[in-house]
Amino acid sequence: MSELNGKRVVLIGGSSGIGRRVAELAADQGATLVVVGRHRGRLDEAQRDLGKKTSVTTYQVDAHDHEALRGFFEAVGPFDHLVSMVGDVMGGGFLSADMATLRHVMESKFFTNVWIGKLAAAHVAPGGSLVFTSGTGGRAQHACGSYVGNLGINALVEGLAAELAPRARVNAVSPTWTLTPFWRDVPADQVAATQEQFSRTIPLGRTANIEELAAAYVFLMTNGFVTGQHLAVDGGVMLGN
Questions:
Q1: d(Cα 134, Cα 210) in Å, to the nearest integer?
Q2: Radius of gyration of the chain, Cα coordinates, nearest whole angstrom
Q3: Per the domain annotation, does 3 fall within a domain?
Q4: Which residues touch 123 (CB under 8 Å, ≥6 apart)?
Q5: Is 209 contained in some domain?
Q6: What confidence tens digit (pLDDT) does each residue in 106-140 have?
Q7: Peptide bond into 166 cis (omega under 30)
């Protein structure tokens, strides 16, 4: 296991939620941070708070704008580790799916992360890593866009891991539904009902907390002998499916 002291860590989607906590844990280990997000206010807050721990650079970029994404990687220079939290979600099966929404989720979850992987490959330092965000806990008939997108991320991780070895490692964390700021715009009663439903389904009887998920990203950055894996942090939710 290697510490992150002196390493440069890029976090795409690192200004709030799980990504923000990953940034805090990396800073606690002595990493310098590059935090990328869409919302200037959240980036400024991250810069202020994380800047008390370490050196922080922020970039306001919508990762779904692939030309802007290309410009970011041209500007950012070399780094040791990259974490991508990028990926929208979608419920419902294929027969009821709105095709525009399905295409958007696939573009967000899969193709944007393919671009991130292709662009990041030229900048990740020897011994470094890329960590993507996949997912678990649903089936195609219940969450068609998310399900296919997660399968795509898992395939991307395996392909990139083989292509980048031995210079760099590639993995993914696969959470199930977790209460995070991602759901800030969803009505509170709907969020509570979803959390209760998952708590009944998950064998451990509860949903994860942000700390448990963030620790998995740090583990994949610091364990130098793990590559091509998608680590499910889901309380065993798929055991009953």
A1: 15
A2: 17
A3: no
A4: 73, 76, 77, 78, 79
A5: yes
A6: 999 999 999 999 999 999 999 999 999 999 988 89
A7: yes
Tell me, yes or no, whether 1 lies in a domain: no
Interval 155-192: pLDDT, tens: 999 999 999 999 999 999 999 988 888 888 888 888 89
Q: CA 214 to CA 50: how far, in whole Å?
A: 16
Please identify which residue in the block is written with the tokens 């939290």.
85
pLDDT > 70: what percent of the chain? 99
- Domains in the chain, number: 1
Q: Domain of 93: which CATH number?
A: 3.40.50.720
Q: Which strands form 32-37's sheet, in the order they lie side by side?
A: 56-60, 32-37, 8-12, 79-84, 124-133, 169-175, 230-233
Query: What beta strand segments (E) does 110-168 contain?
Result: 124-133
Residues constituting the chain:
241
Residue found under tokens 């992987």: 117
pLDDT in tens, 55-77: 999 999 999 999 999 999 999 99
* Residue 92 lies in domain: 8-240
Please indicate, yes or no, if residue 162 is contained in any of the structural domains.
Answer: yes
pLDDT in tens, 85-108: 999 988 899 999 999 999 999 999
CA distance 116 to 182: 21
User: What burial class does residue 225 get, using C-beta atoms within 10 Å of its C-beta: 0-12 exposed, 13-18 middle, 19+ buried?
Assistant: exposed
